[in-house]
Amino acid sequence: MDTQPGMLRRAQEIAQAANLDNIGFLQASMGDGQLAVGRADRALLVTVLGEIPNREAALGELFATLKPGGILSVTEIIFDSIFRAGTQSSVWLARLDSERRRSLGIAWRSP
Q: How far apart are the two ends of the chain, measured CA to CA in Å?
């Protein structure tokens, strides 16, 4: 999922070069309700929290799209110039009700 067609094309090229055919690509913004509930095994966010305008809606949508036992991986690089903007989302993830995390099969590990 990306808002930029060029980034999606690049991801598709990489997947094709690796003969991966079990990946879906979607041009959309997180938090806009475009993801199907309970459909994903994995969701990976890498240095994007600072780019997401409505982080709470986006992360809520990601949690909802995970299958039971699914994994959400959030990686932020401390030296990223917009890391501080993503810190609030990290706090939100950490404070997410532990029962809700368990029900979604999410294991929280703080750095």
A: 25
- Tally Cβ neighbours within 10 Å of residue 78: 8
Q: Is 47 exposed, middle or buried (0-12, 13-18, 19+ CB in 10 A)?
A: middle
Q: Using CA atoms, how far apart are residues 103 and 99, in angstroms rounded to an integer?
A: 6
pLDDT tens across 14-36, in order? 999 999 988 888 898 888 888 99
Rg (CA), the chain: 14
Using 50, 70 and 90 to split pLDDT, how confident is the model at 11?
A: very high
Q: How far is CA 89 from CA 2, 26, 38, 64, in A?
A: 19, 23, 22, 16
Q: Give the separation between CA 92 and CA 17, rounded to whole angstroms.
A: 37
Judge contact between 8 and 27, C-beta under 8 A: yes
Contact 62, 26 (CB under 8 A): no
Angle at 79 between CA 7 and CA 54, to 5 degrees: 55
